[in-house]
Specification:
By secondary structure, this protein is mainly α. The protein has six helices and no strands. α2 packs across α4, α4 runs antiparallel to α5 and α5 packs antiparallel against α6.
Length: 148
Amino acid sequence: MNPSLLAIVAVVLGGAATALQAPTNAKLMGAVGSPVNAALVSFAVGTAGLAVLALFLQAKPDMAAARALPWYAWVGGLYGAIFVVAAAWGVPRLGVATTITLMVAGQLLLSILLDHFGVMGIPKQPLNLGRMAGVALVVAGVVMVRRF
């Protein structure tokens, strides 16, 4: 299988999992009393699942390389926690489709800036009319999902 095609399939499946995660955590929030508690339970279950997968795959971290990482390489989990709390809180108020489209719009707006400036060492991809139009279409999609 083409590596690019495999990556596309994996990312689409990851996006689908995100759509499932939002209402799942919203339901959990109702039982555990807050979006923060729901995120805590969600991350605990996710951590356990990842631990089992790492054991199964015999994935061993390179601790020397890990110690050499810049500080920002360690805070990715915090971004995920913000995402899960926001989704759990947003779904009952906005619905799944509006919550997810708003999240995608936020992701795209920041991602084109990260690409443009090459933040955190990623290859620079200059902002251009096509990229801005793509983001504008997503923002228009947010408006349409919210209003119609």
